[in-house]
């Protein structure tokens, strides 16, 4: 470290003033000297501040948990990264440098690979809120830049600003999904309405910006969503909640949230094998769950099991969409799953989920509910499967098992759910019958190259293939590629006239196949083919399905996640 002549004189003068204050004062009472003495006192305070600042910087870089920057790093740092204090123009400050934390135990990795199976999965902005300890561990493995007491980094691709002890943190995440495709051979039969089945159209399915604030083990999430399940262009909310993570392997949540009871939902939207969940999954998850549902509860996981339970209310925006609601919904969701057998090449998943709406929203026309969904293709098409509008609903519940097994690169899984609808009985009129509906799916997946899908114990669900090396054809690196197939059936037909005179529910079957390519941990390309068959129903709006409809769809998706 070098000092200028001015700094040497200032330091010596300051030292003399401290050590021999009386002698200096007695030397003269001349006003000019008094002014000089005043200037020296100000310089002394300035130098003391600089010394304290340098001591703090040196203490930080010599701490055992931090990497000490070398002389070469300091001398060769770009001028724009140097920090200067007033009066220190000739003294280069310690330069903020990017450093791999705990470098001795975690050797630096190339940003594009190779990656281990555990570190290669698709980056996801959705997932259980990290505890303070997990957050500190995750950020210590990623490149960060130290600026005073603030650290700036990109753990798992998310821009994150944190205090030095990680107690305070703020991060931003992103999911962007753009779909393009259309329908073939879905034309109406004679006497039917045509419905909405575009031959070529586009839809921004999910455009979510994840905003996360942390204070130690308290984590607040706010996520606006600018996409849509059918027609984009309307902004909404995905979540707004507060989480406490101070208990071991436990997340407690209150606020607008998406409680998950199905394995397919627990995978998170970024990791789906197909564009969307099977129809039966969407129907049961929206009974007392779904996106932006008010929820209070939590979940706990261990290596071989997970348990979750939530009390739920209405969805965000329910009362703005229907201003006549006079009594809001209440419900609950429970999930209990296990991992009874696990080896390097095998994972077995078994479990069950249950959900109930103790009461549905009551509006000016009473407590009514309609089951309806698309053909697992999110392009704004007319829904063909429906129960018809069910009136005087007292309670709705659903329950069923879930199963999955992975053997090396092959994954097979499925779920079945039964839905029960209880009706309020009316005096002096025909009693309304209770109803029972069913649905299931079976899906198979094989990873052609890249790390195969794996089991995520924190969500008790299977996650994406892993990208060992980023896409680089010049070096024979191609990312990861998987092929999938799925068969799903949803049966909403139980009794004649269940949705009113002459209106019955119907059944829908969907066969799907598709490819997913992951060139990096942040980018995903999907291509799906769907063959759908729906039996007739007068409950479909616009008389679109009076005689039964079938058709085909081909849809692609571009996805980015950070």
From TrEMBL:
Top-rank lineage group of the source organism: Bacteria
Q: What InterPro entries is this protein classified in?
A: Porin_dom_sf (IPR023614), Porin_O/P (IPR010870)
For region Disordered, the annotated ranges are 65-89, 102-131
One Pfam family cited in the UniProt record for this chain? Porin_O_P
Coiled-coil ranges (or none):
none
Q: Which SUPFAM superfamilies match?
A: Porins
Q: What is this protein called?
A: Porin
